[in-house]
Design goal:
This protein is of the alpha/beta class. It folds into two domains: about 1-45, no CATH class; about 45-250, Decaprenyl diphosphate synthase-like (Undecaprenyl pyrophosphate synthetase, 3-Layer(aba) Sandwich). Helix content is about 40%, strand content about 15%. It contains nine helices and six strands, in the order ααβααβαβαβααββα. The chain has helices at about 1-15, 35-40, 55-65, 70-90, 110-130, 145-160, 175-190, 200-205, 250-265; strands at about 50-55, 95-100, 135-140, 165-175, 215-220, 240. It has a six-stranded parallel β-sheet, with helices on both faces. Helix 5 (about 110-130) runs parallel beside helix 6 (about 145-160). The two termini are about 40 Å apart. The protein binds 3-methylbut-3-enyl trihydrogen diphosphate (2 copies) and magnesium ion. The site of one 3-methylbut-3-enyl trihydrogen diphosphate (IPE) has 10 residues, from helix 3.
Length: about 280
């Protein structure tokens, strides 16, 4: 705690070491844990894209003696808080893994409830997306989704198409492998490219994330240390941050902690340590 106080005093005394984060004023309560953490952030080195594997809803519910769906419902509250926090922090893209190509293997009732929750969420939150200049991009194949959810997703995607403050990549019926196969199919179906034309940057343009920067930081909640088929291509050099916290308990202080830890990492992209010459 003492070290923390020293850092805090330093940060306050020397604004140049801590470029002010835009939009933080009034958002975080003075003296709160998250405000203290946020003071340690360097606004000049924030990730552009944070991707989140939102996991642990079922276990959260089970530990409370509740049905799994209550975990998903509680998870929707975390989504709201983290979307808002990400925008305040100035992220360009926040991607959220909401339903995988493998999640269809769950009991039909759970799948149905999840789809309904997502639809309700979109209906309720479209104002929030517009008021905050957020753009929604769906990642994954919408074809297999219930028609009413699909319509709702397309409506909100169209509605928010011109928004630019932050893009929310909602991964639904998404699988990294399926996305790569689909990209290959699109290239072949188009028939325009020769094999020599295809390189990493061209290929990226056929993925669902076309035009978005790759995630710099990948967060997984609930302590699982696996990727579960999320953004296999895009996370090649993402920093991975795993917390035991279940998604319904994930709050802005956890996000800010992840960003602080991210800034303490050295990203080498295959090179040697910065500054080493031999
Ligand atoms: C994440 O929570 C939400 C989805 C995958 C849809 P889970 O439902 O996987 O929760 P756990 O992992 O069973 O606790
Ligand atoms: C990953 O969570 C998918 C989502 C968060 C949507 P899962 O709960 O499906 O992952 P596994 O089955 O534990 O690997
Ligand atoms: Mg899970």
């Amino acid at each position: 705690m003492q070290n923390e106080d020293v850092r805090l005093a330093e940060a306050q005394a020397n604004p140049y070491t801590m470029p002010m984060l835009k939009g933080l004023d009034g958002w975080l309560e003075d003296g709160s844990e998250e405000a203290r953490l946020a003071l340690r952030l360097d606004a000049a080195r924030l990730p552009r894209h944070v991707a989140v594997i939102m996991d642990g809803n079922g276990r959260w519910a089970r530990e409370r003696g509740l049905p799994r769906v209550e975990g998903h419902r509680a998870g929707a509250k975390s989504v709201r808080e983290i979307v808002e926090a990400s925008a305040h922090l100035g992220l360009e893209v926040l991607s959220l893994f909401a339903f995988s190509t493998e999640n269809w293997k769950r009991p039909a009732r759970e799948v149905q409830m999840l789809m309904r929750l997502l639809e309700d969420y979109l209906r309720k939150e479209d104002r929030l997306l517009m008021d905050n200049d957020f753009r929604l991009r769906v990642l994954g194949n919408k074809e297999k989704l219930p028609a009413s959810l699909r319509r709702e997703l397309e409506r909100v995607e169209l509605l928010t198409r011109g928004n630019s403050r932050m893009t929310i990549g909602l991964a639904l019926n998404y699988g990294g492998r399926a996305e790569i196969v689909e990209a290959t199919r699109r290239i072949l179906a188009e028939g325009r490219l020769k094999s020599g034309d295809v390189d990493e940057s061209v290929f990226s343009r056929y993925l669902d994330t076309a035009g978005l920067p790759d995630p710099d930081l990948l967060i997984r909640t609930s302590g699982e240390t696996r990727i579960s088929n999320f953004m296999l291509w895009q996370i090649a050099y993402a920093e991975i941050w795993i917390t035991p916290t279940y998604w319904p308990d994930f709050r802005k202080k956890h996000l800010i902690q992840a960003l602080v830890d991210f800034q303490g990492r050295q990203r080498r992209f295959g090179e040697t340590d910065a500054g080493s010459s031999s």
